[in-house]
């Protein structure tokens, strides 16, 4: 994958030569990458001779290479905070909350609280939060998130956590309280969800 990333599309022969292994060995690895959706094969016709099979990485393969998005996000937030003040940063988080509310509210329509909690858990899982939920004996619910994709941002800008809690309250139309938070060093972000009285 590193060779394809650095050198671009390559033939099996070129990869074998670069790696110092047999073409058969390279072919096995490349076919596995294709099965996993990480590489693709493109046939290139030549003026003379047989067409060449050129292998390259797919967009999905990009996830296997280091990214530094959280540092960029933090730098941009710090710059906005420095030039325009904390309120400008808070406006950004509020804007994100409103956008997510508009995006997910239709998914919650005509559902009872348990169905909304299950849907919220699925939404959070699709965003990488590793969420799970349980119904408690008293009829309340608990939602736990074991991963926080925005943790580095949330550690420095707690408004991100506040906006998430408000978003949950609005989507669920329920009372939501957080008893544990990864930005505070917790094992997970844990929310108690109770019907509004």
TrEMBL record:
Q: Name the source's superkingdom.
A: Bacteria
Keyword DNA-binding assigned = yes
Among Gene3D superfamilies, the record links this protein to:
Winged helix-like DNA-binding domain superfamily/Winged helix DNA-binding domain
Query: GO terms for molecular function, please?
Result: DNA binding
Keyword tags: DNA-binding
What is the name listed in the Swiss-Prot or TrEMBL entry for this protein? Transcriptional regulator
């Amino acid at each position: 994958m590193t060779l394809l990333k650095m050198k671009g599309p390559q033939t099996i022969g070129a990869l074998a030569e670069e790696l110092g292994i047999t073409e058969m060995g390279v072919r096995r690895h490349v076919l596995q990458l294709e099965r996993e959706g990480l590489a693709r094969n493109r046939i290139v016709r030549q003026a003379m001779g047989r067409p060449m099979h050129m292998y390259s990485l797919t967009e999905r393969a990009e996830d296997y290479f280091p990214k530094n998005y959280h540092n960029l996000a933090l730098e941009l937030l710090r710059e906005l905070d420095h030039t325009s003040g904390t309120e400008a940063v808070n406006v950004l988080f509020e804007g994100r909350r409103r956008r997510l509310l508009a995006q997910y509210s239709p998914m919650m329509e005509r559902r009872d609280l348990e169905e909304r909690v299950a849907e919220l858990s699925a939404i959070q899982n699709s965003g990488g939060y590793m969420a799970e939920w349980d119904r408690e004996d008293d009829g309340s619910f608990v939602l736990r998130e074991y991963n926080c994709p925005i943790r580095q941002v949330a550690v420095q800008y707690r408004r991100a956590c506040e906006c998430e809690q408000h978003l949950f309250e609005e989507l669920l139309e329920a009372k939501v309280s957080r008893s544990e938070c990864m930005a505070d060093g917790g094992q997970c972000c844990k929310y108690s969800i109770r019907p509004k009285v």
